[in-house]
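Morning!

This is the sequence you dropped in the shared folder:
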Amino acid sequence: MHHSTRPPGARFMPLNIPNTLTWARIALIPLFVGVFYLPDATLATGSKNLIATVIFMVAAVTDWFDGYLARSLGQTSAFGAFLDPVADKLMVATALILLVQLARLDAIIAVVMIGREITISALREWMARIGRSASVAVATIGKFKTAAQMSAIPMLLYNERVLSVDLRMLGSVLIYIAAALTLWSMGYYLRRALPQLLHPEAQQGRKSG
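The structure's back. Tokens below.
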């Protein structure tokens, strides 16, 4: 998940094991979406929910695994640093939009979460350009947001009870917690970047001096 944490001299290396896993994660997205477009006569709703949940969880596991392999095998690359977060955000955004279509998630929650990812990605790109990327490095609040979000989405996809636990209700609670943490973390990153956003010329002058 963290190809961007790479040693000096990491190369542009599109074909290696971690990047292959990342490509596989992207390739799962059409299958993930397509499951819900199959006729009910072909595949029952419960089976669709189960298959989609498994696909999402496999993608989440490979997300962690490709980052681990990149670091342990020394196969970090500029391409992996670019592709890995793209794959993450595509899968999560796709899942959120599907959940809205399936009436399991309020559209405003999806808008908040997807909008936050776009905003923070753009902010990090801009901060990297001015050499201040450390100011908006991943913080603990962002990790809590991701944990809540990645726990809630499979529950809402599965949409069934497991033993005495209503996963849809629990997932709904977690996704609202994730939405609150999303806004909180976005505010945190924006506050960290505010001096550079308001006075970029001063920061540039300080850097050059």
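Headline: The CA atoms of residues 126 and 133 lie 8 Å apart.

More detail when I'm at my desk.
O.
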